[in-house]
Amino acid sequence: MKLKLSLINKHVLKVKEDLDFRADQGSQLIQKAEVNLIFGKIVPILSVHQGIVVLLKELVENMQGSAEVPQIVENTETGAELAQIFIDAYEELSQAYPPFLIYHEAIRGLIAAAQERNPDFRVYLMEKERSEEFGRKTFDDLFIRPVQRIPQLLNLLERLEKHTSAMNKQKVKEAIGLLDKMQKRACEAATQNDNFIQELSSYNEVEGLPVNLIV
Q1: DH domain spans which residues (predicted)?
Q2: So where are the chain's domains?
Q3: How far apart, in whole angstroms, are the C-alpha atoms of residue 79 and residue 12?
Q4: Which residues pair with 179 in a beta bridge?
Q5: What is the pTM of this model?
Q6: Which of 62, 79, 157, 203 is 20 to 30 A from 34, alpha carbon to alpha carbon?
Q7: Which residues touch 159 (CB under 8 Å, ≥6 apart)?
């Protein structure tokens, strides 16, 4: 299995740019405000991963042999170097991921609603999904990938820990701890957000309830 250096599918961003261009030209498929709502929280993820990808490429190029995942996880020195990349990126990752993880279901709902409201938008997405660039993935699939990414990275780092020398193992443990912390914080925030929405829905069912009691 080859190491996939492109951690976030850039084709999502290409779709955003195209939709923005169409809106600017007066041939919009969805309103520009909707484009910003749908794509606004995935762009920071793409940005931070572009920096990570550069460092991963450098690490792979400095290795002897092919860039196979098993070789990376079994290289006792490389494990610590790879872990350091994610340690250094922690602050940016912790700012980019939680907002998307909290609202990704709402974002997917916006996409579905836009397709139902405008058949031309649905046809547009279907054409994109059939392209070679999308690799037989649906647009919805690409928006699920960031949700799956952190657990996958944690799994990789746990594999690295098993093959890292005792002297360098602490770096891998530190990276695991930071990503796990970020994931838990995002889950807690998502739960709080869901609870707030449920409470707000309950309040809205009470006719004439003063606003100050809701907020």
Answers
A1: 1-189
A2: 4-196
A3: 30
A4: none
A5: 0.71
A6: 203
A7: 73
Contacts of 10 (CB under 8 A, 6+ apart): 46
The architecture that CATH gives domain 4-196 is Up-down Bundle (1.20)
User: Distance (Å, rounded) from C-alpha 146 to C-alpha 143?
Assistant: 7
The answer to whether residues 2 and 67 touch, using CB atoms and an 8 Å cutoff, is yes
Q: Which two tokens stand for residue 1?
A: 């299995």
Q: DSSP string of 107-157?
A: HHHHHHHHHHH-HHHHHHHHHHHTSGGGTT--HHHHHHHHHHHHHHHHHHH
Core vs surface per residue 23-50: b (16+ CB within 10 A) or e: beeeebbbeeebbebbbebbebbbebbe
pLDDT tens, residue by residue, 33-83: 889 988 888 888 888 888 888 888 888 777 755 445 545 555 556 778 889
Q: For residue 194, what is the enclosing H or E element?
A: helix 169-204
Q: How deeply is 65 buried, as exposed, middle or buried, from its count of CB atoms within 10 A (0-12, 13-18, 19+)?
A: exposed
Mean pLDDT over residues 173-198, rounded?
78
Closest of 102, 110, 116, 109 to residue 33, by C-alpha: 110
Token duo for residue 39: 């794509």
DSSP type of residue 167? T
